[in-house]
Amino acid sequence: MHKRTVLQTALALGLIGASGLAVAQDNVFKIGLILPMTGPQATTGRQIEAAARLYMQQNGDTVAGKKVKLIVKDDTSLPDMTRRLAQELIVNDKVNVIAGMGITPSALAVAPLATQSKTPLVVMAAATSSITQASPYIVRTSFTLPQASVALADWAPRNGIKKVVTLVSDYGPGIDAEKFFKERLQFNGGQVVEALRVPLRSPDFAPFLQKVRDLKPDALFVFVPSGAGAAVMKQFGERGMDKAGIKLIGTGDVTDDDQLNDMGDVALNVVTSHHYSAAHPSAANKKFVDAFGKANKGLRPNFMAVGGYDGMRVIYEAARKTGGKGDGTALLEAMKGQLFESPRGPMFIDAQTRDVVHNIYLRKVERNKDGQLWNVEFDVIKDVKDPGKTK
Ligand code: VNL
After folding, report:
1. CB of residue 173 inside a 6 A radius of ligand 1
2. Ligand 1 centroid to residue 249 C-alpha, Å
3. Has this prediction a pTM greater than 0.90?
């Protein structure tokens, strides 16, 4: 009799208890992907899920002889919900890996569970520096705000921008961006004349922008999470800030490729620093952008998609290296030190910090021959480690 038939028969006769079922599940490698699929960060969930599915479509749904099962859960960006979903995935579904994490509070809520259960947690979106220190089981494939902010604070004063107002979302990544941008700008002889913080949920940028107009800085530095950039850009234009001679600069979250093409001319010439642009001129990226668009009705991948795609690569490779037999700790060890070419360029998981090391690019929004808006890279700082880790 075929193996399967024996197993099915045994199951039907009730001969196999819980331990027998666990054996049957051994042929499955489970990834619990927790994302904001609805609510204010829904674009992040949509981008990451699409990228994870694309990775599986391109690389097969078996790894090391096991069938890969992707279990997607919507946490609506509420950290209590993220924690509850992670608990269920670990205890009931017995996932091999937890992944996703749309915002910092979600990642921090799950960190203790990853530690207790020794389950690797692959952070694909959240980007506050300290996240990787919240659990030795966290590996990050997104980026950190200090990485992106410092590069821009080096570029700005060399390009006539000395007096800056910062405007950030008032939580982990925004506070990192504000701090690291300001410190480096001051070091370079520039000055942050005012540091403004807006609430993460339903922010109204108008009163803040009015204040910026009155302060007349050379530039406004902005960090808002992916999905909120278009609103900032719109109000920046409506208030005539650009016409008043105030430049908009920021980390690449504000000219997010998910929204950029619909932002209109106000976005033209905005300079940002980031680890990923859909316009990154490499063969690997062209292939990624094309395939992503084909699989998703022409949608352009953003930096969230790349964090998800590369996170899947890190998980698959760890499963392969451990021959599909590894427990959580073995999988985690196999994630450390991975070095590969991402659509963003070369990237590396630092074995010591478990954080991503990659290039940071300076980019300027341009309208290309195709009539679309793109973040066109014009300079690069290679192999940037998270500056937050030395503090
Ligand atoms: C975070 C950082 C979220 C950067 C983002 O978009 C982002 C975070 C949702 O750490 O919460 O662009």
Report:
1. yes
2. 17
3. yes
